[in-house]
Amino acid sequence: MKPFLKLAQGFCLVFVVLAHPPAALAAENGPSLTVSAFHEGLLSVMKQAEALGPKGRYEKLAPRIEKSFHLALMAQVSASSFWRKATDKQQKSLITAFSHLSISTYASQFDGYSGQSFVTRGEAPGPQNTVLVKTQILDPGSSPVDITYVTRQIKDHWRILDVLLDNGISELAVRRSEYRRILKTGGIDGLI
After folding, report:
1. Is 36 exposed, middle or buried (0-12, 13-18, 19+ CB in 10 A)?
2. Structural domain of 110
3. Which of 57, 92, 110, 142 is the most exposed place for a label (fewest CB within 10 A)?
4. How many angstroms separate the CA atoms of 50 and 192, rounded?
């Protein structure tokens, strides 16, 4: 009878563990970990920036950015009401163009290393089921720059949806503003 009891207890334990995977996944793949993994990749590229060159930085950053950011949703938000009017083909082209621009921007802005580091300062609840990951980039000899990442759990992964600089300048708001004039005059095709 005891072997049966141990077997039953084992099955119960397996059932309990399998019945609650989101909590386990959240602990292993939380918002701060997503941001930290992105920062690690960014610092690695910064340290090799000169040897990699612009194309090499782009190639190294692309998979990290695609994994960390929800680029499709960011493209949709940036296109605002024009997104709904776009065909599937136009939406795919816009996502591709938005992704290329985002990766290129990071590859060109983070083009060297002189002792910079990223520090995660904490998390706070954000609007619409998001979590704000508050970080700073520390640059020796300069004041820290506050960077807040707006993250949301999508399926079983935390993704970055927006980046706020100095506690207020939204990357998506800037993109949406830049795109609005182009979209009004040329539509989605004009933007792509």
Report:
1. middle
2. 21-191
3. 142
4. 30
